[in-house]
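BUG: 3D viewer hangs when loading the predicted structure for this chain

Environment: internal workstation, default settings.
Expected: structure renders.
Actual: progress bar stalls at 90%.

Input used:
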Amino acid sequence: MLKIRHIAFASEHPGKAAEFYKSVFGFQELSRFGLDPDRPDEARRPSGVFLSDGTLNIAILKFPENMLGKAGDQGIHHFGVVVGDVEAWKARLEAMGAPCVVDRDDIPPGAHVELKFRGPDGVIFDITENAWPGSEVTDTSKS
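Structure tokens produced before the viewer hung:
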């Protein structure tokens, strides 16, 4: 079975978004790239930042208007991470300016608990203490 190893999303400010996710989750920056004004063939390519969590490649991209039909198109809906202590992470995220948009009170009884937050570019992400069915279990004791 193939495994997801790359997620990309559109951002008006890839560097700002990358700094946020590196600071919050400890993702490693792999590279930054931009348009080279001396190479007109590059005008149709996005600029951005590649990050990694050690298993997954995450591309945060600013697309030229001609790539997606219009500037400002957004990519993925959300992504999720497993943490050791949801309440401690909630406090940390809110202190960094990421509003909680789905809190415990919004989750139906018996449902998988995933608190949702809005990142700096409007991208939604989940935090949970329990891995999603079918996902690789990780050691969250240090998070």
